């Protein structure tokens, strides 16, 4: 059963070493992520599952201890998902889950075993919901850390250039995540999300499936688009 969830953005720029001189611009987002992870810890979960976008046709699982790094961004920084080490595996965390691992290390997470789940950005809503329900059913007390960005089209300098549909889409996403509105998340427009380069749509719909019937309340902790990309932080409990 799902007992809590934290929703965080997943740009590598969230890691100060990657952002370098621009790091202070995301201080408020980092603080909100810390608060959201505090809600997870307070729920005393028996298992934490980190969900984020990945490349690939099917969901990919990452056991506790899977390593990742930010060397691809020119930074000599390695992370690990949880405390344990995984022997004999070449599997590496995708960037979204590496950011999650950094957040967990930064806050000293030691409240429950951790594992990762990657879902492809075009994964169908029905399969996302089923994946969420299956994930929530794996333990009596499951918490989710859900990584993903909103649109990448909020300004002229955004990665996807300016799209007038982006701000209304992001506003509805922020409202739904802040209100723990499962129905609204389940029915997000997948075509529009793809056109707006939204990486969080599938992970949010996994969350919606996991939360179905859990009767959780939500709180919006942060919403902004500092680089023309929508970043949302929310906590459910």
Automatic annotation (TrEMBL):
This is Class III extradiol dioxygenase subunit B-like domain-containing protein.
